[in-house]
Amino acid sequence: MIYMLSLKVGKSRGRDYLSIITKYWDRENKQSRTKTVRSLGYVDELKKDFIDPIAHFKEVVAVMNQEIEAENKNFSISLNKDELLSNRTGIRKNIGYSALSLIYHELCFYQLSMTTCKSL
Questions:
Q1: CB 3.0-4.6 Å disulfide test: which of 46, 48, 71, 114 passes with 53?
Q2: Domain housing 45
Q3: How far is CA 120 from CA 41, 111, 113, 116, in A?
């Protein structure tokens, strides 16, 4: 999944260089990363084809972001209602448990069970 793109103007060998990048979170190393989606070239060379290459490619990036947003906007999830969750669900969470846990703690049932256990 590609997130929002941006235009990067960097320096390479003393010349301005354009590239389209995306930033994402690296879960393994727990830090943000930058990925170059497309290298565009040096600004002085791009001025041969475009009057203002930076403005032109900002518009290109905006169009690409609209396309990405349109792709990410509509998605569907299919669930099998007859499938049971195993005890080893990994990163999946049982949402029903969260609702019951909230009610359990709001009604202070845990305090009732603690006093009942102590009296036994």
A1: 46
A2: 5-73
A3: 77, 15, 11, 7
- DSSP letter string, 1-51: ----EEEEEEEETTEEEEEEEEEEEETTTTEEEEEEEEEEEEHHHHTTT-S
**Whether the Cβ atoms of residue 17 and residue 42 lie closer than 8 Å to each other:** yes
E strand or H helix that includes residue 114: helix 109-119
Domain total in the chain? 1
Decide if 41 is inside a domain: yes
Residue 52 lies in a domain: yes
- Does the predicted model carry a pTM greater than 0.85? no
CA distance 115 to 105: 15
In whole angstroms, give the CA distance from residue 37 to residue 25.
16
In a domain, 83, yes or no: no
